[in-house]
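so i finally got all the pieces together for this one. its two components total, 882 residues if u count the protein bits. some of the lines might not be protein, just check the labels. i wanna see the whole assembly predicted at once instead of chain by chain like last time, that was a mess tbh
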Amino acid sequence: MNLIELIYPQNRIVSIVGTAKNAGKTVTLNEIIAEADAKGVKLGLISTGRDGERRDVLTNTEKPPIYVRKGTIVTTVEGVLTDASKNNYAAMEILSVTSYTTPLGRVVLCRAASDGYVEISGPPSSALIKHMCDNMLDFGAQLVLVDGSLDRRASAAPFVSDGTIIATGASLARSMDLVIDKTLHIVRTYSVPKLEEGYIRDIAGDIFENNKTALIDSHGNVKYIETQTTLQCGELISENLREDTAYVVLSGSATTDSIKTMLLNRKSDFKIVVKDPTRIFISAADYLSLQKLGMELRVLEGINIIAITINPYSPEGYYFDSQEFLNRIRSVIPNIPAFDVIQGGI
Amino acid sequence: MLIDEKTRKLLDVDRVLAELHTTTPYGLKYKNSMKPYTPKDKKILENELERIEKIKELIQAQKPVFLEIKSTMKQIKDIRRSIERTVQGGVLTTVELFELKNLNSAMNLISNSQKKLQWKIPEKYIIKELKWVDKLLDPDKSGLMTFYIYDSYSKELAETRKQKQKLEQQFEANRKNLIKEIEQQANVSIRITGEITVSRSNAEQIEKLKKNEKLQVSSETYMNTTFKIKPDEAMLKLTEQIETLKNQELLEEGKVLEKLSLELAAKSNEIISNMEALGEFDLLIAKAYLAIAQNAVKPIIRPISQEGILYTIINGRNPVVEAELRKKSKEYMPITIKLNQNAAVITGANMGGKTVSLKMAGLLAAMVHYGLLVPADYMEMPLFDFIFLSAGDQQSVDQGLSTFGAEMQGIKNILCKEQSSGLILIDELARGTNPQEGYAISYAIIDYLIKKQHLTIITTHFDKLVREGVKHLQVNGLRNIDTDLINSPELISQHMDYTLIEIEGNAEVPRDALKISKMMGIPKEIIEKAEEIMGR
């Protein structure tokens, strides 16, 4: 099975998120680009990182460049377009110039007028990325790929992309066990169950709409809590917990500290609801202990994980046995297809 | 300087100008360089005021056209520097040309909107349709708002690209054939990228592939070996040819950009003057919208006459104070001031809004000088050479001058302005010193100013500053109100009648400091003592 078969036409905007630097995100991207080309799917490309560098500054490993076919819609920056030294870069037709700036100039939407290399860029916030993804679809892209940088997991948020591909690899940790554990944790976090109760979903949706934090009791009554940030809100929520509190709706992030405080002060069993899994910031170890304390976490919108790609190589010089790595990932995460995009793998 | 910095600040001129919302960067530039009109600009100012009035009417009559103009203006970016660069021989980038193409299309739209207006537009506001720019940046007449170095710019470029594409297609076909060939021959499956990775455990296969002349090793690790297809002679030659064509294409593209920039430079003045017209038009519209928001009218500019300065505001409102009050859902009480003499004093109750009225008179005059309509039912005034306000000047006090010292320093500068005609506003003249001397110096200053071509308005608590040649305005105040029932600042301001009434003859300045003190809750004992002293 090809990656593209899993992606298209089921999804229109797909993000690719790496679990670590050099986890094989760009290789994955190139693979999808090549497969999309073979299938004749017109692509749009955008990145959440501001990097356009061919060399990874941190580890000094060469980043694989991105080669596109004529007609691909690309989000790039002004500085790259006007750099005459890049003669093997694709010629570009300019579609629109945005007001978002990067160190290399403004973010520009282009259509490749010939085959060639490109440097992908994008605006700084996920709302703007979503907006530009829609623009690319309007300009004729059939599938938009969002190259999500490590610190910008938000591109996986369901309001940005329809589905996500997780790129993980040896660079995440020294031992295969650790890499698998950490990857599994990310997958678990992204797979936190959706809030099911229909009318509570409507109420929670309104609370998120207003960007508020609130409690819902067993009769569906809402009590808003004025909090500045979710970081300090554990105590404030705790003070308001009652015997009939059924849901705690958090508009910001779910963090270990705030949830722990709530659970220690609880007077009833309640579910904690966040907007989507990218709002959850709990480490694997904390997650287990919070579960023991009785944490029931729910999301309003879940993330559709399309596939996991693995890269058995780390630029630090060590690598895993590709087949073993792939087999183990597949056995611990059986319901999501996994690929070794570096080796092909069976 | 027509309005000095301190006066400007005290009158809140900048807060009024901040409400002037231009839409384009060109309009903003004109707004930021706005300067007060001087008496010799009378005719120009009158024309400007008339135009604002006209636009104000048009906005009401042809609202959709203005909405159209505004929404087009919103997309406009400042690319003046790009155009100026062409004049200095600079070559524009594709991004800059894209922006110019979009600007020009926006200008065309606004030009069309302008034609719909029932107005004979003065030359400096007319935005012209520059057909030659359209033609230059959309050579194929596609009507699209995108930009590309189109084939039609240069025969050489078109030919190079055609060649290159042909060779690239050929190369791709060769590559695919080669992959297929190897796959069949070696019975392997090669990835789309032309690579195949084999695990070291499959040594036999590695050996086999290593012997395959159509493959080459691209990387080896201790676990596996990756092979890449080896381009054949024909492919290598194609690669070389494509490379040459690419360089040629780049060269041709550069030539096109240079040619386009030269053509733009030759007629850049047309683009620049369109930007200027757009800026002027934008600012004019902003002034009209402000006038609508403030329910403002066109003031009438009078000449300075020997018989006294005609200065009339009917139901004037201080737009800054009015906006503040509106936020608290309170209403502003409009004030009428009618003067035809060179000096006036405003007296009246404490908390009666004397200072607010004084500042209103100054601010509205400043707005006229800035070419704005005024928030009033009617206003007439001459143009002044300067506007000056003296009011509790904390800044100078901080610098070590006493209240009185700072006041006298400011007034001195004004008294020295011999050969001009100014609007001089003084809030509680000489309040910072003892009443006897304060009265004497105030009397003498008014005496001096009365003989000049200035209009002086002074708020005061001093009796007897009113005399021949000085108009006396008094705050109506808390008349006919049972003062026993009022005991808070809110109630006082609720019952306060801020209206200014004209007092004929030698009326006394109202004495209500004790009344107000009582209402503010000063202990009875003190009030009684004070009344006793007053009775002596």
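The first strand of chain B starts at residue 195 and ends at 199.
The mean pLDDT of chain B is 88.
anyway lmk what u think
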